[in-house]
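Hey, quick one: can you model this chain's 3D structure?
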Amino acid sequence: MTLKTENNNGGETPIPQRSRSTLWQFLYVLLNWKWFIVTVFGSIMIAVTIILLLIPRYYKAEASVLPPQTSGLLGSMGSVSSILRDVSPLITMGRGGLGGDRSFTYLAILNSRTVIDSVIDKFDLIKVYKITNYPMMYAEKNLRANTDFEIDENGAINISVLDKSASRAAAMANYFVDLLNEIYVRVSVEEAHNNRIFIQQQYEKNLSDLRNAEDTLEAFQERYKVYDVPQQAKAAIAAGTDLEAQKIAAEVQLNVLEHQFGADAPEVKLKSLQVQEIQKKLNEMQTGTGGDFGNTGNFFPAFEKVPELGIAYLRFYRNYEIQTKLLEFTLPMFEQAKIEEQKNTPAVIVLDRALPPEKPTVPKRLFIEIIFAFAVLSLLIYLIHVMDRVRFEVGALNPLEAKIREFSLNMVKRFKVKDGMY
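Sure thing. Here's the predicted structure for all 422 residues.
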């Protein structure tokens, strides 16, 4: 396009048509507007630097803690512990309790209002943060914004605190660790106390049931003289077999005597009486008709009563064995519960205590200034090319372009920007 400008004589001086944009044209425009760029860019960066200098600098202190290895009741019971863990999660107590993953329990404690309020009171953060309205609410909000608790890939818990004072930031981070230990120990002891009461109740009930089982089994044995049903039944069968053999032998002898001496002979009557007594004894062993063997001192139970006595004996003995096995579990659990209740060991292992940082963390002044410099310079370059194009435009312009042209002409005069082709 052909552009025209007015000369000093009121005439118009033609300006050669502008060629299309090239790298040379781009650089020429920047060089032509160099003082504008230097002035505006320098002014903005000086203002940014002053603002950054006025912004308070914050120091970041970090402490690192590690949950201790699992200990407590289940960790000290050897092979029994694997069974107990599968059977009842209620016995997971003391330092091994408070949920599945203690790291998340620690995070819950650190984020609790109790801990936050304790830190606020300890370091008088309401005054530090210069809060006047709703002091506790805004103090809690500011403190939470300036703290960070996270679990790293190694399972350690990192506690980070930002503050204007490096020493106060370190002291606050270490105080978080102290509060974590204090509250976790208190909660653990309380939980151990509740578990001890529960296990003690189970232990005392187990003892009572075991005594009842022992008394029942003892009364049954004393009444029926049953000490080992299978062995006693085996002995009874052997005794019955012997009696049956004696009976057969006596009957043979009786038949021989009857043929020799006749039925009325004294020898026959004596042998007949012997056969009858043997048969009577066999009947008693079979049916118990001779009276309760337990009360008559008979060691052998009646054959007919062996199944019944055997089942009753097995039931009583099984109950006794069950209570005995339970006691093997509940007694060490109860003893360990009493130990856990008395524990007062730290909840976490401190890997790194917080130290006052030597350099401030935020704001990162150099990084911010570089970002601002890049953004401002890019915007200035774009604005310059727009102004340089608009100031040579002729014809109707929209209101925005008219404003830009007016501004560009003023800048041309102020910074002595050259006219003409580039």
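One thing worth noting: The domain at 59-209+348-352 is CATH 3.30.1890 (Bacterial polysaccharide co-polymerase-like).
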